[in-house]
Amino acid sequence: MNRINVLTALGLCSAGLLPSCKEQVTKQIRPNIIYIMSDDHGYQAISAYGGGLNKTPNIDRLAREGAIFTRSCVTNSLCAPSRAVMLTGKHSFMNGKVDNVQPFNWDQDNFPRLLQKSGYQTALVGKIHMDGIPQGFNYSAVLPDQGNYYNPDFIVNGKPEQIHGYVTKITTKLALDWLKSRDPNKPFCLLYHQKAPHREWMPEEKYYKEYTKKEFQEPETLFDNYDGRGTAAHAAEMRIYRDQNWSGDSKIYPEVMDKLGLKDPTNWGRNAFKQNVGRMDDEQRAAWDSVYRPLNEKFEKEYPHMTEKEIAHWRYERYMQDYLACIASVDDGVGEVLDYLDKNGLAENTIVVYTSDQGFYMGEHGWFDKRFMYEESFRTPLLMRYPKEIKAGTSISKLVQNLDFAPTFLDYCGVEIPKEIQGESFRKLVSGETNEWRDAVYYTYYEYPSIHMVKRHYGIATERYKLIHFYYDIDEWEMYDLEKDPHEMKSVYNDPAYADVQKDMHKRLNELRIKYGDSDAFDQHYLKEYLKAVKKE
Ligand code: SGN
Ligand code: CA
């Protein structure tokens, strides 16, 4: 399609029939973009990263036919802030969306809008987690807030609509429907954002049938006691064993909880469970019960005789079964979209990116959730295919960030990168044209006090070291040597052997804060706004 258009344009050009023929040709050969983002998908759960937990054949295709980034990371490991960074190419303290609570200002520039202005058709499908009608899109079909797994509500071009079925499959269908209905003569940019595998993990029927039979190997640090780290790791409320709830997370029916005397003081999990399965129709509910009821019955019998360790293992496995089953549907969706590109001759000229809004803990340090600047949540998967420029089998270990997407896409599409954008285009890095790249990144996290109780922090990561400052109701520094301590088990802050490194890391952190324009005044401002906003909720 694109080639034919180009030839037609060239024909017309040589016949002198088009006034601005050079412009026409460049416009028509501009690449398409499909930016796929899932929610809370840690790199450990993508087989191309070698974790061994599950198989993601379709996502892996992107690595095989394109590039895998082994140290791609976020600037702020939380959903809505990460999305705001991705759209604007600016750090949280610059785009204003520092946490999940405060509003996002859609009036500022975002890369889809800049592409749209330059002739692209743009669409956003799935989770965006920001109020207001998305701006910069010819079509949007988004989930309100977190969205639901079964029979979800969508907001289609501003209008609410409930769609029957399973959210991951619906999101894929909406994306494909839009691709099929677009104007084939214009380049396109599609943001295809899955809600899965966000908590509380509710898989699709065929996959809960399969995954509830699976067993998983525990990570080395499942029984971490946080010695060697500061107050923040101890205080966080994200332990699978202690902080996941029985009904919402582990899918133990409220009546079974009652029989076993299992507690849920706030009823959060019970309500979530009722709400989640309450959305199902009779058929969906019967299918669910055919698998989860026997599982509950088995647990009811075994629980009274289980040791603490056995319960911990059970909870870990229950979590992994549902979490990874949700990812299986996400992977199917990627497969369908790649098939569509193949069948329609679009694979060559379309940049396909797979990433997540942040990483996630799968039992490392005993945790689930994210937020911390520690590796599992700081890093996020990134795979990218663009046969025209990226060699199959490329692996990039440089520190790229979600801050870089906007400038990278604008670069590929020949659109000028606005000055206020803080990220950098990694186009030449991934094509192999250069190996020059930044060697340190800056991180901020603000949402505290809040669910999971991860303290406010900011920090710097280089390829080898990481320096983090936890502040607000504590004032503690931590530093890690990732080469010697890849699981970040022991802070070496104030260890005399690292005195020089520590001094240098402090200096570099200050430089980054100046470079990106961060300051204590910003912290104070956002803190005030945050406390005001949570009071209102
Ligand atoms: C919900 C989840 C949390 C999660 C936040 C933010 N609890 O509150 O575990 O950290 O969303 O996630 S739940 O019981 O309601 O599922 S984010 O990805 O949207 O930032
Ligand atoms: Ca998320």
Number of structural domains: 3
Count all strands and give the number: 14
Distance from N terminus to C terminus (CA atoms, Å) equals 51 Å
What structural class is derived from the secondary structure elements?
Answer: alpha/beta
**What would you call the shape?**
globular
Arrangement of strands in the largest sheet: 6-5-4-3-7-1-8-9-2-10
List the uncertain runs. Answer: 1-27
Task: Compute the number of helices.
Answer: 19
Strand percentage: 5-15%
Question: How many strands, which pairing sense, and closed or not: the largest β-sheet?
Answer: 10 strands, mixed
Produce a short descriptive summary.
The chain has helices at 2-14, 21-28, 57-65, 79-88, 92-95, 111-117, 167-181, 205-211, 231-235, 240-243, 254-260, 268-278, 282-302, 308-343, 375-378, 405-412, 427-431, 499-516, 520-536, and strands at residues 32-38, 67-69, 121-127, 139-143, 153-156, 159-162, 188-193, 350-356, 382-385, 394-396, 440-445, 457-462, 465-470, 476-481. It has 537 residues and is an alpha/beta fold.
Question: What this model shows, in words?
Answer:
The longest helix is centred in the middle third of the chain and has 36 residues, at 308-343. With 537 residues, this protein is of the alpha/beta class. The chain contains 19 helices and 14 strands. The strands form two sheets. The chain has a ten-stranded mixed β-sheet, with helices on both faces. The chain has a four-stranded antiparallel β-sheet with strand order 11-12-13-14, covered by helices on one side. The model is unreliable at 1-27 (pLDDT under 50). 47% of the residues are buried. It starts with a helix and ends with a helix. 2-deoxy-6-O-sulfo-2-(sulfoamino)-alpha-D-glucopyranose binds next to loops. The site of 2-deoxy-6-O-sulfo-2-(sulfoamino)-alpha-D-glucopyranose has 15 residues, from loops.
